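User: My collaborator and I are trying to settle a disagreement about how two of our proteins should look. Neither of us wants to argue from intuition anymore, so we agreed to look at predicted structures for both before our next call. Could you fold the first one, then the second, and keep them clearly separated?

Assistant: That sounds like a sensible way to settle it. I'll keep them separate. The first protein:
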Amino acid sequence: MSRKLDSPVQTQMAVSLFKGPMTGEYPGSKRVEGKQPAGRRRVYVQTETGCVFGMELDRGDSAHTVKRRLQIALNVPTDESSLTFGDLVLKNDLSAVRNDSPLLLTRNLMHRSSSTPCLSPTGRDLQQRDWSGPIEILGNSDRFAGTKQVVKDIKKAIKMGIDPIPVHSGLGGAYYFRNTRGDSVAIVKPTDEEPFAPNNPKGFVGKALGQPGLKRSVRVGETGFREVAAYLLDKDHSANVPPTALVKITHSIFNINDGVNGNKPQKKRLVSKIASCQQFIKHDFDASDHGTSSFPVAAVHRIGILDIRILNTDRHAGNLLVRKLDGVGRFGQVDLIPIDHGLCLPECLEDPYFEWIHWPQASIPFSDDELDYIEKLNPVEECDMLRRELPMIREACLRVLVLCTIFLKESAAYGLCLAEIGEMMTREFRSGEEEPSELEVICMEARRMVAEREVPSPKSDVGVEEFLFDIDSEDYVTRIASPFGNGSGHGRCLLSKLEESIEEEEDSEGEEQQALASLPPSKHIPSVAKLSMSLKTTSLGEKNFPKYIGAKTENVQMANTSSGHRSANEQLPASMSFVKLADMNEDDWTLFLEKFQDLLYPAFAKRKSVTLGQRQRLRLGTSCQF
């Protein structure tokens, strides 16, 4: 009987046979890391069921070459499949693929047929073995210097037979890898063991790599590079994100399910996986086990600044580690270490979760050093850096980074504190209805303004493959959430609260007006009078926000997924996207950012007036230590 492509067990066995180690357990032990002959590149191809195969490519090799070698290794047809590299679907040319890059092979509604001929590796193909060692960093950047020593320690421990320890908490597969002394030095999270991924060890299965995951704007199998991105974006190691890198790692501890039903094979075999590898940081407890009053203001601010930039949708107390500081004069002092950034940088604006938003430290104004740090952030340079270090990252993620960094810079310069910024980014739920955040309202209005500036023409980019996940919702919600906010009657009613705040500001007297007058103006924002007149020309209603009522989930089959995979949509929490950024061309994106910045000043004024009017807002007490 022929093997099925849906069986990762079989494909992993095929890879092991094709690797064909000549001597020793790992043939790559003698290879000098990062050294390939001139004109050659090393890539790691991952199938949507999770198996990984490393190969060397010559300068003249094409996507067809990669598929043929996989066909030989896995004994499956690859004609009806696509080879993808981030946003790119590789038709033939591989010039965009860099050394040590991960590629993803997905099937186009194709199943293994019993009539498929079985090919044997012959001639030159016999030489295409996976010469990787037990663990290797994907990429040789100096930015991963902190992880290289950890990788060396893991290699020595593996050769001595010291096994990693599975992590039983959480929804995905994770493992503590140890050094030769038995101490944990890293936590490794395979991308194919994420929640809903094919080889999840905890029963949360049902999706292929590349489909919408736990958050619908974060695809299954793509939380790993987000962990690395958070580390790379932690400029000057300000927030204390532990060193993190993508690795290809081989071990028998990893989980392999039989197909997509989650059945585990009886025998453990050596399997190779692509995973995030983060240095293990010794700590005493997490933020859920400790009173927040002792947390330093500076530490809370640094983590909050990072969370805002990367639009972290999962900053809960469990992923804030707390470490006691020893030494003279440090009694009771602690430091914070943020971890678990796999749900940051979504492909569209999401509802973030900031645990720190109601902590008293978040209401303290930024210090001069923090304002200087924020001012020096350059989202354009950061995007260029991420494209170099993580070439598989999607442009939609980078646009979210740019938007949120601009929002942080402008709001901090205006005088908003961390809590106020977080509140503007967070959605509200009222009577089961979800309203867009203040940030999303601004973006929706900016999109409408861009649409009105355009000359009617055939829609651009229609039919182009992009992320834009299907949102499960009622028809009227889909119309409201359309990119430009048109067709629903609500497109011109998005800034009602801003209009109200401007009118209130004109009539207000006393302390609030004086406080607002003392706030520093933003460098890139036009005058209040100009924007006030602009908004007054728009007919704005009362509380006419789009709302999301009672999610109606449907099983959506995406074009790049496999048939036969049971959808896990019914297990996912309701999710709504009010604003998409990836469907704009470069000209529209540039104009959108201009309009977005033009609208920020009245939004900040409104937020500041609300804050000043809330006398019951939490204030810092004497129990807080700073």
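The second protein, kept apart from the first:
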Amino acid sequence: MPRSFSELVQKCLQNQNQSFILLLRRYIHGNHVYRISLQKEGEDGEWSNLSWALTVNQGGYRTEIALSEAGAKPSAYALLHLVRASTNLGLIPFGQQLHTYILQSGFGSNVFVSTALLNFYMRIDSLKDAHNVFVEMPEPSVESWNSLISGYAHSGQFRAALGLFLQLEKSDICPDAFSFTAALAASAKLSLLQLGESIHSKILKLGLEWSVVVANSLLDMYGKCGHVKEAIRVFDNIIDKDIISWNSMISACARNRKLEQAFGYFRNMPEPDTISYNELINGTAQFGNIEDAIRILSSMPSPNSSSWNAIITGYVNRDRSWEALDLFTRMQAKDIEMDQFTFASILSGIAGLAALKWGVLIHCCTIKYGLDKSIVVGSALVDMYSKCGQVKNAEMLFQSLPRKNLVTWNAMISGFAHNGNFTEVIKLFKQMKTEKDLKPDGITFLNVLLACSHNQVPLQVAIQYFESMIEEYGIEPTAEHCCSMIRLMGQQGEVWRAERMIYELGFGSCGLVWRALLGACGACGACGDLKVAEVAAGKVIELEGHNEFVYVIMSNMYACYGKWGDVCVVRKMMRDSGVRKGAGCSWIEVENVIPASSMVE
């Protein structure tokens, strides 16, 4: 009997004896080594079992020598299963070695082997390597396309996923049901209703609307795009509705404030499950009476962490964070399993309260649960410490996180911006742009523009950032971006330029930007452009009605210009309209209590 595993493999390969093969299989099983189960008989199939077992025990390099000495040559079939096994077990170095071997041995052109490699890189979140494998495939199959599309979608790069889907449509390969479901999911995430409707029409042309999986994806897309009537039409046409169909319909109604309809579908549902209850709780907590959501929670058969999370989030979104904390403590007392979203939600509420002591306590809980290093919780902790003024702690946490996503980077950049560390904002932004598979979004640029306005950055540099956001990254400017640019231009005394920009960007009917322009004029004092201020004031009153802000700014500006008659007119208008200047208000946390204090200016 051979004494070593290597000798056993060598003997088996040389003799091709069935008894040795059976012995080897028992050896693999006894040593808890992952073994690929192949139904195919013959040398190729056995090679897959032998090579994998030897690799696990001795490493890829020695395996290659042993197989070479034995005269065994791997087939595409064997390599396919080796790559799949590497993917399932997360053996990254071995998978990368296999990739090298596949390229050297000429199997890179095999569509099945290449697709398996593509899935391997997707599993380890290496989108760039996955894309490179795809590009090198001479004739990718529809499965190859689907793998890459779904990979981009799962990583949150929905536009890239949709771009690939559109390329697939232009190719000679016909999309299948899986292609359409992935594209619909990406459209739903981006709320691209027109694109979703276009995909729906193609599904109808190909006769795939009868697939319950495709129909459920359509339901989800229409629900997330706020098109409830069309979702109902799709639902009514499904012949064999499954539980996902019912839950998708409940979700579509609940998330679009159609709570009565959501409850109607819930009552007609054959067998509601936990997800069904959770959708009702989520919708009610967001748009209904939150006490009703608590009653649903109390009556459901088996609530889980998502059930509690929905109500905690509802409290936080309604600025009732103390009640969210109360519910969190009840959840903990009942030994309900908490997940990363539980902690992220409650940390968001604590950040809004700037309640540092509670934040530290929750941080300790995340460490106890082993969740402090997760991206979701880590990002929430960075945000919480930043909003509590502890930017150094936030930075330490940020640096310690093993993985960061766009939310993490934005939390840290925002933390620096709101704590006055504007030089660090620009520095971190430049560092972020060098990160692999990461692109700044509108929130990132909003903080960069904020830093520019506080850091006396030349206007032209700020304009370059703004134009880069639009042209290089394809980000549509929002009213908030426009307001930031208005403040920057106001600092340079170029409010006339800001007025022109408002019309160029199509924000002429947005009261927020006109208030920002009026504020920029007022900040310039006697140097402000009175004509632009009068235009802005008129626009604010036209769009938002009488506002104390308008009268105060205009009164101050007229005073700066020595137009005392106009000052009297403005103050009389205030009295006649019943508008009064409000008192300033501030608050701090003292022993977990927040006493409000006001100061009349």
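Some points you might bring to the call about the second protein. The first strand starts at residue 584 and ends at 587. The chain has a mean pLDDT of 82.
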